[in-house]
Amino acid sequence: MIRCIIIEDQPPAQRVLKKYIGDMQNLDLRATFADALQAIDFLKTETIDLIFLDIHLPKISGIDFLKTVQNKPNVILTTAFSEYALESYEYNVVDYLLKPFSFERFVQAVSKIPSPKINRLSQENTPTILSSPEFIFIKSGHQHVKVAVAHIEYIQSDADYTELFESGKKHLSQEPLRFWEEYLDSKKFIRIHRSYIVNTSKIDKVVGNQVYLGSQTILPIGRAYKEAFMEHILGPQ
Fold this sequence. Notes:
Layout: E1 2-7, H1 11-22, E2 27-33, H2 36-43, E3 50-54, H3 62-68, E4 74-79, H4 85-88, E5 95-98, H5 103-110, E6 128-129, E7 135-140, E8 143-148, E9 152-158, E10 161-166, E11 169-173, H6 177-183, E12 189-193, E13 196-199, E14 205-207, E15 210-213, E16 217-220, H7 223-234
Parallel strand pairs: 1-2, 1-3, 3-4, 4-5
Antiparallel strand pairs: 6-7, 7-8, 9-10, 9-13, 10-11, 12-13, 14-15, 15-16
């Protein structure tokens, strides 16, 4: 899957991009931002393969964003102004979509994105899967601990490590949160915050910007993740 974000301040344009992305099986929309400054903070902790970037944005423009971001992922510009096309290619953008663009033109641009590379984590740190995918072994300190995937309630980032909470138990893992986000079934485990992944089957209720797992555990929903999370559990509204 190609992990992507949208940086676009106009709701109609956001809706078009979300619809097109949703119609592509190889695209995974992680977040949507109305300005580039929010996206810069997001990219400091998240690994993304593709950005759909508008040029005319509040606070800083899409072009200024391209100038400032280091090690930026693939970028497809989306704009109503053709005069920036030549300048944009100086920043190695993949394509330049002139609004309004068709789904066919969108697909043509996305087809230029290379497939993401296989996870680079070393073989030593990769969980060993048994013959059944219902269980995994995670490396915790000097031992490997068997964990039932269905019993995992949520996963929390702890600096360079993660903590897996499973039916009253807590396991410290050496893998970062982004590893579990890629490794676990995205239909069952979803990122709700920069520090949390939750097993959707364990959710009792959602109140405002909080997820309730039973009566004791309350997790926050990050602003950048809320829309994708609500669509995931409720479907498109």
